[in-house]
Design a protein that fits this description.
With 278 residues, the protein is mainly α. The protein is built from eleven helices and two strands. Helix content is 71%, strand content 3%. It has a two-stranded antiparallel sheet with strand order 1-2. Helix 4 packs antiparallel against helix 5, helix 4 runs parallel beside helix 9 and helix 9 crosses helix 10.
């Protein structure tokens, strides 16, 4: 007979003595009993502890009261600020001059024939700061007519919203085509407004956006003309010289850059874009 000490049991690819297997099982049972004891003690402590009561302060937000700025709690201010911040990118892109500037600068880069110069970060940054420069009078008007009186408790919340939206509406209506505005008024099934103040901001913003896109495409077309003519001239010269295997874009790119620098293209372009909003 084979003694018990010589018995081997396969465990995780190795063979252990029978005594080691028995010890391992005893250790598992002891650990399980210990876990149950700890769990029971935890339940007992939780049962003896009194229930914690959390009292949250009431939040009130009234725009109709002159004392509204003093009644807004800190938590509600944070919530309101986060909500506004989520809308800032859409307002910045669609309700300001940013769309026209960014699209025209992108057209200029493609017209020159350079793919990544200036890079997207430079184009977006330049368009962003030009937007701040162009929209500065509108922002100053909003501050003088709406924000400053509201902070001094001279107007109510509803009046603050009306005065704050009016300068932005006037700016967008000044650069919105009547045809585009009539399109969104008709799509909204609204009655024909009697004046500009009766127009909804929901109809003005998309109409202003597509008007800006059309204007930007028109400017882009004008930008393309001199560079296309230069490309045609370079292609004709290369073809007449028999250099058909030489890419015309490679030869015309330095000439386009030289032409753009000689006429001070950045100054002319930025001057024309800023003046188009004045």
């Amino acid at each position: 007979m084979i003694p018990a000490s010589a018995m081997r049991l396969p465990v995780t690819g190795r063979e252990l003595p029978a005594e080691a297997e028995v010890a391992r099982k005893r250790g598992f049972r002891a650990l399980s009993v210990f876990s149950l004891v700890v769990f029971a003690i935890t339940l007992g402590v939780a049962a003896t502890c009194p229930a914690a009561e959390v009292n949250l302060p009431g939040l009130r937000f009234h725009l109709d009261d002159y004392d509204a700025p003093q009644q807004i709690s800190g938590a509600l201010q944070i919530i309101f600020l986060l909500t506004v911040l989520t809308l800032v990118p859409g307002i910045l892109v669609l309700a300001t001059s940013f769309t026209r500037l960014a699209v025209v600068l992108s057209f200029l880069r493609h017209a020159l024939g350079v793919q990544q110069s200036p890079p997207n970060q430079v184009i977006i940054g330049l368009a962003l700061f030009l937007t701040f420069f162009i929209m500065q009078p509108v922002a100053q008007q909003i501050y003088d007519e709406a924000l400053a009186p509201y902070q001094k408790h001279e107007i109510s919340g509803d009046e603050f919203l009306k005065r704050g939206v009016k300068p932005l509406k006037d700016f967008m209506l000044k650069h919105t085509r009547t045809k585009d505005l009539a399109l969104f008024v008709a799509l909204a099934n609204d009655e024909k407004p009697k004046n500009a103040e009766a127009l909804s901001i929901v109809s003005i913003i998309p109409a202003f956006a597509i008007s800006e896109l059309k204007t930007a495409f028109q400017i882009g077309f004008v930008l393309y003309i001199p560079f296309i003519i230069l490309d045609m001239v370079i292609s004709s010269i290369l073809l007449s010289m028999g250099m058909m295997m030489l890419p015309p874009a490679m030869i015309s790119l330095p000439f386009k850059l030289m032409l753009f620098v000689l006429v001070d293209g950045w100054n002319l372009l930025i001057h024309s874009l800023v003046k188009s909003f004045q």
